[in-house]
Specification:
With 306 residues, the protein is an all-alpha fold. It has one domain: MetI-like (MetI-like fold, Orthogonal Bundle). It is 75% helix and 0% strand. The chain has twelve helices and no strands.
Length: 306
């Protein structure tokens, strides 16, 4: 066994050990584990929306503006629809947009960042200037402009819109990690053994950058949820009639409840506090849990912070 082979194998063992240590550190954080459990429970409810939220669009004229009760635990809205079932479907829509957008953004970011960080030169300069161009505009402004040109908007449309600006954040993280890793001795050992670019990228660089990629993807989920709720408050995004989401459920009721879209008298007559409180509570819970999990992952998997 050559010295280069021995060094490469020792680094791979050490890399796997660091991953196990990072997981162990994360598990030892009860707050982060609890946040992850709550987040997974909320997303599981969203996945089961066709069963748990069946009848979300049924109008019950006998139970208009009913407060929370045993029959309707979240109450009913101004036309008798069950707020609990609509909130479940809102979780499903928000989950689809956030996870789909973050997954696509992560894929694009990994591709652009890996190529830029590994090859450098004009490819690096082009990819990073493109990322600079995307990040030069605030996320909310970028999204609102896209909504204006792509209206009407559906959940699958939002996935591509959010991925179009979120990939730059992931690409910067991946590019930074690859630039750091490509100068390490184990990469030189892999090259000395005749490993090609693809083998080095997939066998050595990507596994060692996986922790930072996971942190960036988690951050992307939280940012997409927040931006989606923000733009829907301004009346854009997926209409509640097409597919209820947590953002448009809060938006449609809060604007009227506090007289932002109509007179206050009409707002009081048409909406109750439960119309916006429960969807908003779930939305806040998702954002808080995503941030807690993301911070814990960063501290656990980032050796420079650990």
């Amino acid at each position: 066994m050559t010295a280069a082979t021995l060094e490469l194998e020792q680094y791979d063992v050490r890399s796997r050990s660091l991953t196990r240590v990072g997981i162990h550190r994360f598990v030892r954080r009860p707050g982060a584990v609890a946040a992850l459990a709550v987040l997974l429970a909320i997303f599981l409810v969203g996945l089961l929306a066709p069963e748990l939220g069946r009848g979300w669009d049924i109008i019950d004229l006998q139970n208009i503006k009913s407060p929370p009760s045993t029959a309707h635990i979240f109450g009913t809205d101004s036309i008798g629809r069950d707020v609990f079932k609509r909130t479940i479907y809102g979780v499903r829509t928000t989950e689809e947009i956030a996870l789909g957008g973050a997954a696509l953004a992560t894929l694009l970011g990994v591709v652009f960042g890996a190529l830029a960080g590994w090859y450098g030169g004009w490819l690096d300069a082009t990819a990073m200037r493109l990322a600079d161009l995307v990040t030069a505009y605030p996320a909310v402004i970028f999204t609102l402009a896209a909504f204006v040109y792509l209206s009407p908007v559906y959940p699958h449309t939002l996935i591509f819109i959010f991925a179009a600006f979120m990939w730059a954040m992931v690409a910067r993280v991946v590019r930074t990690e690859f630039v750091r890793l490509r100068e390490q001795e184990f990469i030189e050992a892999a090259r000395a053994l005749g490993a090609g670019d693809l083998r080095i990228l997939f066998r050595h660089l990507l596994p060692n950058a996986a922790g930072q990629i996971l942190v960036a993807a988690t951050s992307a989920i939280g940012l997409i949820v927040l931006v989606d709720a923000t733009v829907e408050f301004f009346g854009y995004g997926v209409p509640a009639e097409v597919a209820p989401s947590l953002g448009n459920l809060v938006s449609d009721t809060v604007k009227f409840q506090f007289g932002l879209g109509s007179s206050y008298d009409i707002a009081i007559q048409n909406y109750g506090w439960w119309d916006w409180f429960f969807p908003g509570l779930v939305l806040v819970a998702i954002l808080v849990c995503v941030n807690l999990v993301g911070d814990a992952l960063d501290e656990s998997l980032n050796p420079r912070r650990s």
